[in-house]
Amino acid sequence: MKKLLTLFFLLTAFYSNAQNLNKITGLESTAPSVAYSLRQLSTSYTGPLVRIKVGSSFYDVYPDASTTKFSLSSKISAAIVNYNAAVAAASTNALSTIISGSTDATLAIWYDQSGNGVHVLSNTSTAKIITAGSINTIFGQPTIYFSGTNGQSLLTSSNTVDYSALSGATVNAVAQNVATTSSFAGIIGAAYAAPNPGYSIAYDATNGKGYASDGAGCTYGGTSSSTTPQIITNIFINNTTNLSKIYVNGVLKTNTAVTSGTCLLTHTSGSRIYIGSARGFAAASFVGNISEAIIFPSQLSDAVRNSLETNQSQTYFGPAVTIASSASGAVCEDASVTFTATTYNFSGTPTYQWYKNGTAISGANSSTYTSTTLSNNEVIKVSAGDAIVTNSLIQNLDANNASSYSSGNTWTDLTVNGNNGTIVTGSSGSVAIATEGTIKSFSFTKGLSYIGAPVTKTASMSFNVWAKTSSLTNYSTGTMLFNAGASGTGWQTGGPTLYIVGNKLFWNTYDGTTNPFKLNGIDITPTTSAINDTNWHYFTVVVDAVANTTSLYVDGVFKGTAVYQNPNLYNTPALFIGGEGNNANITNYDLAWVGNISAFQSYSRALSSTEVVQNFNSKAAFFGANSAALTVSNSITASITGSAPTLTVLGDGCINKTTLSTPSGQTSYLWYKDNAPISGAISNTYSPTTAGDYKVQVTSGSCASMSAVTTISVCGVTADGRMSIFSSSTTLVSKEGEINNRKGVDDRGLILTNSVTPITTGLMLYLDATKSASYGGSGTTWNDISGQLPAGSATLVGNPPFSSGSFTFGDNMNASTSKTYTVSNQLTLIAWVNPSQTQSTFTGVIFRRTSSDGGGTGIFLSGNNLHYDWDNQHYMWRSGLIVPNDQWSMIVISVKETELTAYLCNASGINSVNRGNGHGSLTSRGATNFHIGLDPYPGRQFKGKMGTAMVYSVGLSTEDITTIFNSQKAAFGIN
Question: pTM of the predicted model, to two decimals?
């Protein structure tokens, strides 16, 4: 009796521990008895996916945090030297840290995710999961290759199972036969012993049955022999016979109504789970790939089975993208690393968007991404989407394609139909090309301007447009995104239109009433959150002549359907983008679009909802839109060593009184003077005795990096190394070696400084609040002392407070030059700043724009991270130089045609970051003024103190920057 009670409690525990596969929609209420996968199936399961064997060591491998699958980014446990079955905790190391180009890894344990702990294992199994440094895959998804013809790849559970009380079961697997020869090769199954099979999936290679169920003495299957990956589901009718329904990729191959024998199944308390060989019988080995294998203790309904198989199809056979890096292990700073995307199962050439640390990389839209500016632990991944639907595409206008638009008034159709657009500028309003990062679009202002793009109409059509606006609240009557009607009066002649009225979308055609918007349209956006913002959105209007409806989608999401009132009037080729069109009776400019339009497509049929989503996904990443349907790759974390060394200046920058240092603990050091190595200077410190430009090369492992340059001066040194005192009206140097130590002041009480900057070549603008010649202490004019004629003096806006040689800028307080400047392909911007708080994103310091939201060029701070913009490009790059609050720093952006260097100079020394990147000439963008403490785009105001603003028409060298810093730092209290 005691034994029976014990068995009862064991069975109760076995099933009560089971957890639902809630990461698969439709299986939230269905618990398996065993579940093996190379992805996480349940949020309740927090253990490892597998244990692998690499060499003589074992490692537990956990789901990748980003994809929840087995990947090289998966965290692993510490090495397990002596094999055991105890789960090992994850460390901070990724799988990639133990895998090289020659590494193989075999499977030691496949962990059960059902919660019942029925793991399958073997410390000698040859089932291979990594071959020569690469994860084995099916369509880019991880898989395990079972290749042992004599059972060498077999995995067996040490725990037993008892299915004797079940009234049937379901066995499911994702597998690929490669070269199986057995007549009952086991993929997954329960068995008591070799002669006694239980519920299973096998592969019958001898009798042509393909995927089958394995019974005592026979297999039961259909004609599904194949070497292509398959999803197999066997549903057993009871626990004694081998009859079952067998589905392959969701298609029923056999049915219990057709009997071919009643081979017996055996279920007892001593049964075990076998994967890779049937019943543990060596000769019945499966040769192929297995990615997932699950047994359910019940017969799944069609609804649940369909949910499972649909999810598996999407996961393993749907579109997928993986990335690989050209770097094997850690690489040196500035090394060129190329990431390559490989795609699977896309309907055509996919579109790409690369990401760094979760942020889209501007312009990175090809199948490869190469960088020489990676930092350690930066995370790279890519998203991919199917290309735009081309079936029945009769018009494709794309401002981002040079073949569609480069200049002039014609927006060229990229199809062969010649349905070009023509920019029409009316008596008011405007249409102009604009650039925002890598996105090009047409910018519309309020008025009678539009783009006419006639297209031949068909009974059913679809119209798609990428657009954005932030001005909807100003137009109560409505603003028209496009109008497919005749003679510029779409709603009066039956043509479909898309209006936005009071932040709500309306579309449809005229039915004879005076208000076509609210009577015929459907109010589907009661708030402004989805439309009235500064984001790009994808609008689709589908005209279905069969259903007599027009339907609206926003960002691929269906919003509603309205009755199509007058299809008989929908017959003219007229199409107007950005306005109502050429209606001579128009007097209300409110109908004009105010915002940007980047792409427009027309189809000669009604698109399906799936096709609308595909079109949205094809460009969602490019336009910064959110799309859960985009296919996202695995992530690769960059391993970078040997970063540019920090050079610290201890002293006053004069010979014999200054020590240069860089952190200790590296492999080797070598100091340079004037670009020549200094013999014997091989420690982490050096004290210059002669004037010149100094830098240090630091070697860490195999990587050698060079520091920034610092200049050491003579400074009037006496024979004993002390400073000789000299003074003038502009300079006072004390014996203590302190320049301008507040012993000399001008008539405003400010420290005496040189009146002329030491670097004048290319100087275009020089505003310096520490000099009375630039600002006398009152008034709204900040004088330009660059010496250029005419001067580029700036006008102070908002009465910013002035004190001790600086202005305090904040909301509505800044300065702008009255003079306009033309910029070529070189530029240096320098400013002394003292932030009072952490700056908001894209805070302008010295900035210019050639239009209200285009042509942005200048210095940005984002969260105090120093970066820049160049003609609305490169603004997503961050230098990593963090400008501290409540202390003075000189910040610099030096742009040359093929590179950029950012500098942060303050009491901690001079730090710089170099970036190799092309910078095209901005001459064609025209002349415009500079804003100080402001990017004129809304909400980008610098908050804090500013002392100087300097602009050069050339890219200054590190030596130049050092010279300027050393000449100005005393005025800001830096010795």
Answer: 0.53
Q: 64: buried, middle or exposed (CB in 10 Å: 19+, 13-18, 0-12)? A: buried
How far is it, in rounded angstroms, from Cα 584 to Cα 660?
76
Angle at 815 between CA 809 and CA 819, to 5 degrees: 165
Give the mean pLDDT of the chain.
Answer: 83
Element (H, E) at 214: strand 210-215
DSSP of 783-851: -B-S--SS---EEEES---EETTEEEEBTTBEEEESS-B---S-EEEEEEEEESSPPPTTEEEEEE-SS
Number of separate domains in the chain: 4
Q: How many angstroms separate the Cα of 496 from the Cα of each of 411, 511, 565?
A: 22, 12, 10
Kindly report the CATH number assigned to the domain that includes residue 258. Answer: 2.60.120.200
Of 23 and 916, the one with more pLDDT? 23
**Residue carrying structure tokens 């087995």:** 70
Give 265-319 pLDDT, tens digit per residue. 999 999 999 999 999 898 899 999 999 999 999 999 999 999 999 899 888 988 8
Judge if 765 and 697 occupy the same domain: no
Long-range contacts of 520-524 (CB under 8 A, 24+ apart): 520/562, 520/563, 520/565, 521/562, 522/552, 522/559, 522/560, 522/561, 522/562, 524/552, 524/559, 524/560
The closest of 275, 267, 225, 269 to 246, measured between CA atoms, is 225
Phi/psi for 226 (5° steps) reads -165, 155
Give Cβ neighbours of residue 628 (< 8 Å, ≥ 6 apart): none
Residue 585 is predicted with a pLDDT of 46
Residue 72 sits in the same domain as residue 197: yes
Number of H helices, E strands in the chain: 6, 75
Collect all residues with Cβ–Cβ distance below 8 Å to 949 and sequence separation of at least 6: 765, 766, 767, 794, 815, 829, 830, 831, 846, 930, 932
pLDDT in tens, 92-137: 999 999 998 889 999 999 999 999 999 999 999 999 999 999 999 9
Residue 669 falls inside a structural domain? yes
Is 6 a domain residue?
no
Distance of alpha carbon 844 from alpha carbon 933, whole angstroms: 6
Which residue, of 684, 712, 740, is where some domain finishes?
712
Return d(Cα 449, Cα 578) in angstroms, integer. 8
What letter does residue 568 receive in the DSSP assignment?
Answer: G
Asked, for residue 362, whether it belongs to a domain, the answer is no
Decide: 599 and 398 in contact? Cβ < 8 Å: yes
DSSP state of 521: S
CB 323 within 8 A of CB 634: yes
Strand order in the sheet with 337-344: 320-325, 337-344, 368-371
Question: Contact at 8 Å (CB) between 920 and 793?
Answer: no
Q: Give the end of a domain, one of 697, 712, 727.
A: 712
Dihedral sign of CA atoms 832, 838, 841, 843 in order:
negative
116 in any annotated domain: yes
Stronger pLDDT, 26 or 593, i.e. the higher one:
26
Could you tell me the CATH number of the domain that includes residue 688? 2.60.40.10
Instruction: Judge if 804 and 916 occupy the same domain.
Output: yes
Q: Which domain holds residue 155?
A: 17-317
- 679 & 807 share domain: no
Could you tell me if 263 and 195 are in contact, meaning their C-beta atoms sit under 8 angstroms apart?
no
Residue type, 524: I
Structure tokens at 695: 């830098």
314-351: b or e for each residue (b if 16 or more CB lie within 10 Å)?
A: ebbbbbbbbbbbebeebbbbbbebebebebbebeeebb
What phi and psi, each to the nearest 5 degrees, are found at residue 618? -60, -25
Are 574 and 648 in a shared domain?
A: no
Under DSSP, the state recorded for 928 is: B
Mean pLDDT is highest, among 111-115, 241-245, 506-510, 527-531, for 111-115
Quick one: pLDDT at residue 530? 43
Same domain, 577 and 496: yes
